[in-house]
Amino acid sequence: MERREVSFRIYRYNPQVDRHPFYDNFKVAVEKGITILRVLNHIKEHLEPRLTFRAFCQAGICGSCAVRVNGISRLACTTQVWDVLTGSGDDPILVEPLNNLEVIRDLLVDVDPLMEKLKQNSSWVAPAIPEQQMGCKEHIVSETELEVIDSATDCILCGSCYSECSMMGVNRRYISPPVLLKAFRMNNDTRDTIGAERLQQVTADHGLWDCTHCYRCVEHCTKKIAIMEGIHRLREEALERRMTKSEGARHAQAFFDDIHDSGRLKEVTLPLRTKGVAGSLGMIPLAMKMGLKGRTPPLFMKKIPDIKHVRELYRKLEIRAVVKRHAVRQTERLQ
Amino acid sequence: MKYAYFLSCINESMTRELDRSLEILEKDLGIELVKLTRGTCCGGSNLDYVSPDHFLVINGRNIALAEQMKLDLVTSCNTCLLTLRRARQILDSSPEKREFVNNTLRDEGLCYSGSSDVKHLLWVITEDYGLGRLAGLVTTPLTGMRFAPFYGCHILRPSNLLGKDNPATPMSLDHLVETLGGIPVEYASKNKCCGFHTLLVAEKESLALSGNAIEDAIRAEADYIVTPCPLCHTAMDAYQPMTLKGRAVSRTIPVLHLSQLIGLALGHSREELGIDRHMIT
Ligand code: SF4
Ligand code: SF4
Ligand code: FES
């Protein structure tokens, strides 16, 4: 069995006693295959009984053990020491608490804000079956219906994406990726009945439209869930439900319209169309400065040579959409 | 070496100097970039949820235009890169969607088959052209100049669609800076988000994102930030005075496009490369 001595540099902080966080170094002899969680347990048992962290299932199921290893949020119980060795294997492995949540002690963070956001955004199925009939009546979900949300149901609320999220880093009130993922999962559950209401909650300030598309959540999801698909589908649903008053919705619509009109994005009026007249006033000084440098977008974007083909595509897709909507209405009527 | 070159809307309007300096490089490097004039806006990260069908057809068409020329498609915008590659992956993995797109495109005589790759300019330079060859062309090495490489999100993540650099520790742009004789500085923000996509929706937060990265680069004593993405460039250059407001930094920092960085090392002047058109010079 391969075995080596590895250094660990672990974040320590007890806000009630320590003025500042600090780091403790431990050397541990580790066998290949050993996880970060096993090392933390070893340190607690044999070297530093005060070291505080959270863990339960040890199998990547409960979601309680997420920490940052060498700066990246991961599950301590499924991350093997061998896989995170850097340099020639001699660099210490850095273990720190998740970002964007308050530290209670050492690696333990307070997840209440995440739980609070889940509550605010109705992150549960509100079924059609009345309370008194629960357990007496079945609501069957077909395999194809499940497929849509299957991967989203894998979320174990470990908080890794919450910790990695760019928007969370600059606004703690941001709805956050796991809450958006749950909203997608609930809104596409055929048993659920409060989709419209939930979408109202999700699109409130600091919500759905504030995601910057940085894909950090997707990249670092411990369950490899395509979170962005969920975010996109929620935005699509918001537009379908004609919730087009928000800046994000108007911004998106502009791209759609401009490709039809000229093939190109009309950047010059994009702020106006996104933020409205009042909202754009604040941008005038910047626009003027950019004008002096010749950086203002042209007033009219020249149409691409084949614009008639592009418009023809739009026409075909519009017919297709009408036919689709009709078919949906027909099946609804039959049901 | 010959490629189809995707025209990004921002390079047709606000960051025109990017393509201008690239035209100069084409001659130096002997790379031919045939402009995809019939192509349209990729829809940014927006079209997909306004209408997934339009997103697929529009970008299937963009790639099909390159296929018709029997060329790989190159873009110098990170978001165009991701958008086109996303469409490509969906079309390659679903025969039904491919059939739908091709039925829609038929009247224009276009067909998507998946034969053209979609690449970023940075990849073309570092991989297809090669840093060794590029080193041989350097006439004015950027000796002693310190550069903070800012990669931008959509050339790194999601790595399953992009997958050249490790998103946690990207190096390709660092290596390019070294090849040109400059010093790449290490700083925490090199793989972070510039906030561009929410500038018109959540301005305060977006400015905080780009401000953090700019401040980080200044603290690492970089002389320049260099980025392969015109959207990152806009967030960090045009908006820099706004992002630095209220921050304890002693100076501003100019931001270069990838094409300008190479142009400088190949002996072209700041005027030729349009560097004086930037807001921070
Ligand atoms: S893509 Fe959106 S939700 Fe995900 S990490 Fe980035 S800002 Fe947060
Ligand atoms: S989406 Fe992924 S990373 Fe985020 S909480 Fe769920 S399992 Fe963890
Ligand atoms: S201890 Fe349960 S997921 Fe790690």
Explain how this protein is built.
The complex is a heterodimer of chains A (about 325) and B (about 280). Chain A is of the alpha+beta class. Chain A has three domains: about 5-110, Ubiquitin-like (UB roll) (Roll); about 110-240, Fumarate Reductase Iron-sulfur Protein, Chain B, domain 2; about 255-335, no CATH class. Chain A has 13 helices and seven strands. Chain A has helices at about 35-45, 110-120, 145-150, 160-165, 165-170, 175-185, 195-200, 215-220, 225-240, 245-260, 270-280, 285-290, 305-335, and strands at about 5-10, 20-30, 65-70, 70-75, 95, 105, 110. In chain A, a hairpin with a 2-residue loop joins strand 6 and strand 7 (about 110). In chain A, helix 6 (about 175-185) runs antiparallel to helix 7, helix 6 packs across helix 9 and helix 10 runs antiparallel to helix 11 (about 270-280). Chain A starts with a strand and ends with a helix. The model of chain A has no long low-confidence stretch (mean pLDDT about 95). A four-stranded parallel β-sheet of chain B has the order 2-1-3-4, sandwiched between helices. In chain B, strands 6-5-7-8 form a four-stranded parallel β-sheet. Chain B has helices spanning about 10, 15-30, 45-50, 50-70, 80-95, 95-105, 120-135, 170-180, 205-220, 230-235, 240-245, 260-265, and strands spanning about 1-5, 30-35, 75, 120, 145-150, 185, 225, 255. Chain B has twelve helices and eight strands. Chain B has about 280 residues and is α/β, with parallel strands linked by helices. Chains A and B meet through helix 5, helix 8, helix 9, helix 10 and helix 11 of A and helix 1, helix 3, helix 4 and helix 9 of B.
What features would you highlight for this structure?
heterodimer, A: 335 residues, alpha+beta, Ubiquitin-like (UB roll), Fumarate Reductase Iron-sulfur Protein, Chain B, domain 2, 3 domains, two-stranded antiparallel sheet, 42% helix, 11% strand, B: 281 residues, alpha/beta, Glutathione S-transferase Yfyf (Class Pi), Chain A, domain 2, Rossmann fold, 4-stranded parallel sheet, 12 helices, 8 strands, 45% helix, globular, binds iron/sulfur cluster, binds FE2/S2 (inorganic) cluster
